[in-house]
Amino acid sequence: MLEFEYDPDQKIDWLQTAPFLGVHVAAVIGLFAIPPTRELVAWAVVFYLVRMWSIIVGYHRYFSHRSFKTSRVFQFIMAFIGVSCVQKGPLWWAAHHRHHHRHSDQEPDIHSPTLRGFFWSHMGWIMCKKYHATEHHKIRDFMKYPELRWLDRHYIAVPVALGALLWWLAGFEVFVWAGLISTVVLWHGTFTINSLAHVFGKRRFKTKDTSRNNLFLSLVTLGEGWHNNHHYYPGSARQGFYWWEIDIGYYSLRLLALFGIVWDINEVPQRILDKGRTLDQKVSGNQGPAESTPSAAAEATSSAAKSAPAAESETESSLAAGG
Ligand SMILES: [Zn+2]
Ligand SMILES: [Zn+2]
Fold first, then answer.
1. Angle at CA 105, nearest 5°, toward 60 and 53?
2. How far apart are CA 236 and CA 51, in angstroms?
3. Which ligand is nearest to the CA of 211?
4. In whole angstroms, how far apart are CA 222 and each of 190, 225, 252?
5. Ligand nearest to the CA of 98
6. Nearest ligand for residue 239 CA
7. What are the sequence ranges of the domains in the chain?
8. Could you give the CA distance from residue 270 to residue 276 in angstroms, rounded to a whole number?
9. Which of 103, 171, 197, 281 is a plausible cystine mate for 108, CB 3.0–4.6 Å?
10. pLDDT tens digits for 124-182?
């Protein structure tokens, strides 16, 4: 039995976790039982990309950070596709993510790899009963939408219905590749940001956490691997701060803005971009890692401390205004 000594409440809920593990087993069996064809792999890749997009742009940059604005219809579309990722509902996801930013790598952080190890930060915490409930007080700004509350409460209904539809319309083999295998890869792709993006990569900014920038993770997650940038300035819809930091999620938002589907996209302020370049130049000039430069570090830390609560307080003020 997996138990975590630091908190007796943090035990794996095996009953709730069984379907999660069952999908893993089924996906591995499917991988060997149904050989990949070009068509099956294409199905899986498309299902992966569309759903990863809904998690990083919808669940993360929109519901968690409100880094752009959109219509109620498109908000629902993002939530609906997001629920098909089987990572629970948008309110649950965003509330836990806001908690992560508030306490990153400090004792209250639920999924810190530096405090609690790789397995726990990657997937252990999701399997734990203690964190099954949605913390409504952290996501009051979106609680007023009944359609979001419904999705959050019945988060399993959508993926089950879509899975059945996929099996019925496209056949069992497509269901295995686009439904099961794609979902397992999608899960672990997403989870890497909680685990690996706090362990492997470069730290441009000295934030109060252990977040890192990692190109490989950015490619896997369509732009979320610039996690140190993101922790430094979480209010921005853009996580790859410079042209060479590939951020497909951000490019998609610019494209959607051209059609008027999203608007008021929060950008990275010029002073932050300038500071990042200065820190990069110091590193390339062999003046030691950016984070060890005392003046830059002190300023970066104070700025991070300001920017994280700023994202929260924006949320809270809009709640107060009922907007
Ligand atoms: Zn993080
Ligand atoms: Zn975030």
1. 15
2. 21
3. 1
4. 10, 8, 10
5. 2
6. 2
7. 14-320
8. 10
9. 103
10. 888 888 888 888 989 999 999 999 999 999 999 999 999 999 999 999 999 999 999 99
